[in-house]
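User: Please fill in residues for this 776-position structure.
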């Protein structure tokens, strides 16, 4: 044992026991404050220590007897510096006094938490969550919204067919695995929304997503319970998710969103559970929650890149935790180094390893050529079975008379392509379009010809989108054109006269008359250009991937062939290229003509939903829209939380003393609620600076944090006031009734509607169209 002192007013001396810290009243010890911070005072004997311990217990019981009705079998003794000593009854000591199990300073217990109540409540939360998610899980029996994408991608995994998507592969891999394990054979085409599933076994993929979506309310319950130690607050947070029609709808279909939100909430839960293990560093439970946090982080990023937001949240929490440890003078620098290395391993190295493993499995499974080939380099395609480059042989050197395809070296730059469609009137020369196309196509084939002598003059014309570049068109009849047709092939980094090697040589095409170089600008043409990539002639002759090309297919029966198997890339090269393609694909997602583009400010106010199925009164309609009572309560709670946080911060700064449970709730408000507010901000604000198309469902990860914050905020409102216990319970009961009744009113949005639209006064939903922008 050792005795320490701190200048914290009434309770100044600290007795340290193995694995715990107890705050001991100065009056018991007769000591005096020794200055700022906690200072070593001396060693005491075992007998004296036990007497001191019993004296401490007795003092805490007398000092806090006024709070017994509120704390319900838990005692709280405190210091002015905010340290809390919270204890729970257990076995008795030899002198008959209740032995207390002290908790770490700053770890708060609730007035209402009973050891058995949370278990029963958690079971109830889980049952309600499963029931609301699995009800009518097979309805409607046709493709809804983005099931056409992610269901199809699940089929690709079952068939081992390579495809391209802007998101990492974990979510689609799990969907495909769920379908395979439940009897789906991967033959349904998923062509468009509304297509009937008929005899195909689709329910397993929906059930898998519903199962993960069913975990969100229990996760919210456990997170809020850990942060506030209040069962009512945790129940409110869970109820917000149980009875939210938006969360139910997203969980019932073959989508990435329930999988993503499962890993996000799992990451947060593991993080807060790890925080509770601070007094037992390097124990089994400490390592378990640390490593499980890393696993969930890799899962979040492995489903969608927005998983970076929860990684940032955990990173900020870890940085503050390490900063706290660095300021603990009782911890040696060697021990601090161990803490740092453990977090580096658990939260950086392990997630990175698992993340790369996901891609390794992805590349092993998808080993057959498919619709995604054209997005990747020629070397990448050579590893795909069925691709014309896989184990292929072709002439090694380019020659006149060869028929070739030319691929731009910019990632997702596309193949040089020309079709019979003309540039429209007013867009440069009214001649045949030349573009870059991301897919293999007969119109990608080009013939290498000897030049014809010609002395005609030319007039350059600006390109359609990149005005400082020149327009490139197709011209002539049966291969006969004019001087504008002449291009000089140069090997990048080579000398004049060097031969052009298939796949391996980087070449550029120099226009003989204007000295500009053929370029894939990366810009997407409008509808008249079939949304293909613009091809220009750049006056800037500096070598860049946009102006560099390689010869991919090469047909010339007059030349000998060589094997291309030596060109297969390494795993790291494939991993790097796939990420570049995904990032560029994400940034290239722009709204199409007449396509609904949601705005971030719409989301918190529930301004506009999203049609999942059906558009007219004869169809089975599902409409993604959050329960307005819940969403508007979340919005109000956000404003109240910011107000209360401001008031509490000002009070603390001014030295206002808060006694008893007010201090406990203030701590919960500032630390637990502050973390949830930060989570909401990190998952919401970045969308304001994104250039890609946005949809309403992008807000749902942020909505999870706002719902948990609502539970914490209402805890402070209901339990820090002077109203009676029965009125507190009454307020909680009214809230729950409001959630249930609003769910009863709006549940057809999730479980399907038929009949007149809400705009029709005869519709059963007419009275529920509270905003003109709602289109159900």
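Assistant: Residues filled in for all 776 positions:
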């Amino acid at each position: 044992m050792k005795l320490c002192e701190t200048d914290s007013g009434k309770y100044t001396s600290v007795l340290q026991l193995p694995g715990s810290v107890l705050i001991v009243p100065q009056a018991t010890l007769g000591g005096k404050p020794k200055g700022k911070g906690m200072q070593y005072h001396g060693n005491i004997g075992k007998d004296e220590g036990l007497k001191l311990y019993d004296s401490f217990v007795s003092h805490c019981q007398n000092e806090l007897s006024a709070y017994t009705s509120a704390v319900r079998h838990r005692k709280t003794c405190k210091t002015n510096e905010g340290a809390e000593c919270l204890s729970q009854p257990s076995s008795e000591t030899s002198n008959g006094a209740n032995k207390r199990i002290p908790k770490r300073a700053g770890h708060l217990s609730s007035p209402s938490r009973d050891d058995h109540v949370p278990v029963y409540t958690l079971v109830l939360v889980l049952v309600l969550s499963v029931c609301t998610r699995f009800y009518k899980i097979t309805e409607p029996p046709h493709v809804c919204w983005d099931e056409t994408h992610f269901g199809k991608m699940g089929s690709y995994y079952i068939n081992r067919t390579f495809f391209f998507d802007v998101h990492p592969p974990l979510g689609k891999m799990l969907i495909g695995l769920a379908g395979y394990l439940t009897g789906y054979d991967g033959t349904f085409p998923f062509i468009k929304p509304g297509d009937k599933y008929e005899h195909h076994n689709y329910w397993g993929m929906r059930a898998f997503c519903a199962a993960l979506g069913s975990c969100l309310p229990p996760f919210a319950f456990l997170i809020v319970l850990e942060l506030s130690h209040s069962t009512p607050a945790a129940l409110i947070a869970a109820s917000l998710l149980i009875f939210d029609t938006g969360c139910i709808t997203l969980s019932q279909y073959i989508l990435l969103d329930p999988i993503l939100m499962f890993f996000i909430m799992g990451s947060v839960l593991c993080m807060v559970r790890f925080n509770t293990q601070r007094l037992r560093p390097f124990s089994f439970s400490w390592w378990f929650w640390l490593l499980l946090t890393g696993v969930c982080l890799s899962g979040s990023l492995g489903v969608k890149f927005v998983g970076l937001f929860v990684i940032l949240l955990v990173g900020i929490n870890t940085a503050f935790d390490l900063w706290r440890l660095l300021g603990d003078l009782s911890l040696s620098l060697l021990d601090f180094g161990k803490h740092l290395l453990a977090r580096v391993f658990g939260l950086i190295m392990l997630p990175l390893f698992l993340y790369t493993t996901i891609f390794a499995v992805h590349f092993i499974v998808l080993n057959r050529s498919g619709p995604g080939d054209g997005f990747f380099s020629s070397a990448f395609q050579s590893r795909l079975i069925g691709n014309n480059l896989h184990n292929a042989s072709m002439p090694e050197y380019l020659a006149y008379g060869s028929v070739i395809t030319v691929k731009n070296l910019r990632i997702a730059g596309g193949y040089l392509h020309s079709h019979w469609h003309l540039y429209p009137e007013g867009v440069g020369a009214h001649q045949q379009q030349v573009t870059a196309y991301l897919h293999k196509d007969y119109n990608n084939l080009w013939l290498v010809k000897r030049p014809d002598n010609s002395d005609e003059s030319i007039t350059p014309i600006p390109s359609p989108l990149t005005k400082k570049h020149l327009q490139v068109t197709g011209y002539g009849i049966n291969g006969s054109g004019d001087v504008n047709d002449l291009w000089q092939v140069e090997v990048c980094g080579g000398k004049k006269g060097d031969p052009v090697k298939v796949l391996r040589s980087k070449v550029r095409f120099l226009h003989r008359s204007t000295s500009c170089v053929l370029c894939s600008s990366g810009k997407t043409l409008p509808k008249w250009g079939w949304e293909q990539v613009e091809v220009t002639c750049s006056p800037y002759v500096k070598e860049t991937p946009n102006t560099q090309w390689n010869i991919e297919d090469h047909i010339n029966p007059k030349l000998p062939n060589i094997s291309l198997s030596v060109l297969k890339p390494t795993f790291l090269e494939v991993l790097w290229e796939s990420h570049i393609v995904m990032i560029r694909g994400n940034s290239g997602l722009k709204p199409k003509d007449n396509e609904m583009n949601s705005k971030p400010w719409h989301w918190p106010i529930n301004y506009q939903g999203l049609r999942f199925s059906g558009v007219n009164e004869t169809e089975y309609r599902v409409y993604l829209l959050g329960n307005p009572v819940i969403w508007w309560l979340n919005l109000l709670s956000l404003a109240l939380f910011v107000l209360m946080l401001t008031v509490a911060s000002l009070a603390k700064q001014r030295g206002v003393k808060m006694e008893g449970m007010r201090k406990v709730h203030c701590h919960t408000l500032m630390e637990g609620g502050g973390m949830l507010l930060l989570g909401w901000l990190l998952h919401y604000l970045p969308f304001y600076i994104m250039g890609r198309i946005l949809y309403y469902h992008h807000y749902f990860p942020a909505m999870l944090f706002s719902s948990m914050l609502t539970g914490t905020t209402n805890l402070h409102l209901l339990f820090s006031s002077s109203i009676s216990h029965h009125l507190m319970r009454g307020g909680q009961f009214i809230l729950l009734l409001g959630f249930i009744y609003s769910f009863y009113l709006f549940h057809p949005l999730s479980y399907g509607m038929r009949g007149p639209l809400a705009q029709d006064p005869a519709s059963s939903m007419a009275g529920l169209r509270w905003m003109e922008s709602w289109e159900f």
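For context: The chain has a mean pLDDT of 80.
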